[in-house]
Write a structure and sequence with these properties.
The structure holds two protein chains of two kinds. Chain A is of the alpha+beta class. Chain A has ten helices and five strands; from the N terminus they run H-H-H-H-H-H-H-H-E-H-E-E-E-H-E. Chain A has two domains: 176 residues, no CATH class; 89 residues, no CATH class. In chain A, helix 1 crosses helix 2. Chain B is globular and about 50 Å long.
Amino acid sequence: MAAAAAGAAIVIGPSGGNLGQILKAAAIAGATAFAFNEVGDLTTHNPSFGTPQYVENVAGHALVGCASSAASGGSCESGALSGAVTAAAGPFINRQRYGAALVENAVLGGVTSVAGGGKFANGAITGAFGYMFNSAASAFVGMRIGGAVAGVVFSETGPLDVALAWAGATIGAIIGDWAGGPDIVYSAPNPNGRNGSPEHQANVEDLERDMQSRGLDTEREVYVPTPDGEKSSRYIDIVGKDPLSQRVQESYQVGLQTQAGNPIAREMRALDDIQKAIGSRPTFRPYN
Amino acid sequence: MKSRQINFFLTTADQADLINSLDPLGEFVYVRNVSRDGTPEILESASIATATNESLQIYIAQLREIKNIVFQRLPNVTFSSIDVVRSPVVQFVRCYQDERCIRRGRLYFVTAYYDRRQQIEKDEVFLSWARKIVARARRVLKKEDGSLIYYGKQALHLKQAGITMDLGF
């Protein structure tokens, strides 16, 4: 994987090394990046705190951290701890800008590694990679570009390795953030997977047809900034708007309900965040 | 279902700039969001006509994909609407503007959806073009710090002058 170049630059940067070490580190970095990205794909990348996906994400990061650390000559325990703790803290520290979140993940991973008996650098790398290749997946393309450039430059420059590698990777991430695609990529929430469910889609379609037949324009997956909420933004499943003024007349959230007939906890938190942000609560429509 | 979107605040002039910037991205047309006979009604332009009862919500479609636009029948009315989920279209919600506020608009398209419980990925040629449309908008517009909302040049000036940027709720 091309991103391995970024990994090699960062992994080798702090310690310097010969060609054999560079190639080994590149292979480990590439595999680690790939594994973190896979964990993200399987667990929705930035799962909400307390959800089953969150638990799986933390466990996945622990496994990858363990394997990566052991392959690099460190201990499995410290690697697992770094991976797990940074993933666990993800919902709280990954909302910030790319650079700040990256540094916080690296520092947290490093400190945790030391607490677990490992090296700060190894934990920092685990934490940083976990963020770059799981949470900040939109920067992935940029990492490829920047990392590759940094990797090439690094092999010629000696003492400037770390700064150049880091700068290259960061610049690459910014490029990726700028050119890598739209800033909002939305997948409907779904307890059974990350792509929504047929039932969810069917219920939204029912609401859509009903509102359109009453003369409203409809919009799906409407972005709502929720700066004071549990998450920094939310999406309303569907709204009905006046066609001329584009003012929202009706809004609906489709989801699962408990046996008592209330929205499940995840849906309730979303509704609370939205209500706090826009001053009204979308109508909840259960599909179970 | 999976989708992509970009949200923005644009004045009429900003909107014209955005539309012009999209022109080089191949042969495409703007289409009304509803149809009386179940066939696409192509608009002369995407600019907002004054004193009209037209919806601010329209669609962008490649010429080659016009025939693949899917309409959904609506209950109790004589018109049908474009099915944004299954059609190879980009929804373009143009911004409402008056002397007090500009209301949010957006570009939005669906990349994958469920059909008979199977997830269907839309045609890659369409997706590639649709991504370019949104990417072009990102380049033309300015992103607000700490937010995922974009602004046109004039809208940004108006915001600084105290005009309300309204999410529409």
